[in-house]
Write a structure and sequence with these properties.
2 copies of one chain form a homodimer. Chain A is 44% helix and 15% strand. Chain A is globular, with a radius of gyration of 18 Å. With 328 residues, the first copy, chain A, is an alpha/beta fold. In chain A, helix 8 packs parallel to helix 10 and helix 11 crosses helix 12.
Chain lengths: 328, 328
């Protein structure tokens, strides 16, 4: 097994245990397939639709797995928005008070969604303040447990259930996956997914996909050590703007990934439009990078079966209008 | 059983046979549920997402059921767009040449989608020409079999698999359906759905939902006989503009339905926006009327479990932009 090394911070058994915890709580999201997209790709694209997950992204999986395991008296988290909503809903379901630290410029749909789930939201300025420090200070002051957005074995294991379901659903469809494309910010989703996918289909290639300006994982995989993004980098993929790979996630990813791919914001917008037209799913920018990579030919798709994770759909209507109108 | 009368043109066994034919061919679309929409409704809304069906609407089900049963040498159909694409894909899968008669002002996404599936498209002027006559003339000239969009037992049976899946998926979730809301143009979808739903859950109420200007089925159910829509009526629900209930569909619907509800175009646009925000699914106007009726309180939702069919998602980006921007 590719993930059999005991020293990795997450193993297949952890993902399987998370799947047990999430059964009947998280949605087993559908694996979508479009005749039109398959024709464009010249192969089969099996698209895991996490916008259809509770809170509109995969982040609920890891958050619930962590909170249901730890059962802390209170929780604090920092997040650009999807982890925020995931933690807020998981905490509400488990009766745990939640405080979430979010950038003041996060998409409105994410700020409002988090508040609507009953969490206390504390905002900060993305360029001037350190969200980790703010979160840690709140944790120290209130006794709440800090749930990190990606660099945590329970979070990785929970997110890995996306990959577990993808492999199982593809197998039920009689498909053998040649490769999978998964978006990458801090690397928690892909670390968990690669753990599950390469356990179940050891020979498949799992590729990280990032916005071109936030290619820290691609460069880190090449360099063999964690490299940071350039200060002041810009992308409209708000969900993927982590400063550098996580320590624990990178330990997994350097072992299990085939490498990193990048896409431009324009390629992401194109993928969002094709998801609208052919899949009928609302995908946020950060959630569409993997589909963008497939459609832009970053990997060979002809005659192959490629698993693609759409990670979330929390996009403000105004931005979606811009994308549909071709202004992005 | 509510549908046990032998004289109805479609029975539960026909729907079950269609489900067998469609297995592995049509998508078993997911039953979506949103914490936020449930909170708005004060109950549970179980949302059957047919935009995720092949060709982007439920129409593929009936078309494939009819063509796989009849296996004609060639097929002709008339349609405002979703039946067109359903017939075109079913014909292509079965190797049958298809000609489709469509209004010249059909949404571009539907015209292009039908052509992309390899069908020959013949356009006509909605206000001046009779699509049924055009379709019949082509059938006579070419020997093709005409597949009507709704007034056909095989079509009703195929569309009824939506209701069959809805009942089965709700039961697997441990839910007892109190009522179902289904959109209604010619009445084929709801006739099939009511046949399946009231066989499996005899005590539940199935309501037809129509645009306010196209309330022919609501009025016909009240009058006990088929009544037509007013000439020149307007609605942006392009999928639901049939002139009057079908003869066969109405025979089923007058027996099985609890009645008809209507919604305004503004209520439909609101439902499309909430589906975007909370379900992350692209819904076309005609596909959103049932959700609109639930959100507008046309039936009691508090403390109840309501099945809702979203019938399709083939909407032009420009119209969707208008809706998201609040211009509808």
């Amino acid at each position: 097994m590719a993930d059999g090394s005991p020293e990795l911070p997450v193993a297949f058994a952890d993902v399987a245990a998370a799947a047990d915890r999430l059964r009947g709580i998280a949605v087993e999201t559908p694996l979508l397939e479009s005749d039109a997209l398959n024709a464009l790709a010249g192969g089969r694209l099996l698209v895991k639709a996490e916008p259809l997950q509770r809170t509109g992204s995969f982040k609920f999986r890891g958050a619930y797995n962590a909170l249901a395991t730890l059962r802390p008296p209170a929780v604090v988290a920092y997040s650009s928005g999807n982890h925020a909503q995931g933690v807020a809903l998981a905490a509400r379901l488990l009766g745990i008070p939640a405080t979430i630290v979010m950038p003041a410029d996060a998409p409105k749909i994410k700020l409002e969604g988090t508040r609507a789930l009953g969490a206390e939201v504390v905002t900060y300025e993305r360029d001037r303040e350190d969200r980790e420090a703010i979160g840690a200070a709140i944790a120290e002051r209130t006794g709440a447990v800090l749930i990190r957005p990606y660099d945590d074995p329970l979070i990785m294991a929970g997110q890995g259930t996306v990959g577990l379901e993808l492999a199982e659903q593809a197998a039920r469809r009689g498909c053998r996956l040649d490769a999978a494309l998964v978006c990458c910010g801090g690397g928690g989703l892909i670390a968990g997914c690669a753990t599950a996918l390469r356990h179940l289909v050891p020979e498949m290639a799992v590729h990280a996909v990032e916005p071109a300006a936030y290619d820290d994982t691609a460069r880190s995989l090449t360099a063999g050590r964690r490299e940071a993004n350039r200060p002041g980098a810009r992308s409209f993929c708000d969900a993927l703007l982590a400063p550098m790979p996580g320590e624990l996630t990178f330990a997994v990813n350097r072992r299990l990934l085939a490498g990193g791919l990048t896409v431009s914001d324009a390629e992401v917008a194109h993928a969002m439009r094709l998801a609208f037209r052919h899949l009928k799913v609302v995908v946020e920018p950060g959630g569409a990078v993997a589909l963008a990579a497939a459609l832009a030919g970053r990997v060979e798709t002809r005659g192959r079966t490629i698993g693609i994770v759409l990670s979330g759909g929390n996009v403000d209507p105004a931005l979606f209008v811009d994308v549909l109108a071709g202004h992005r």
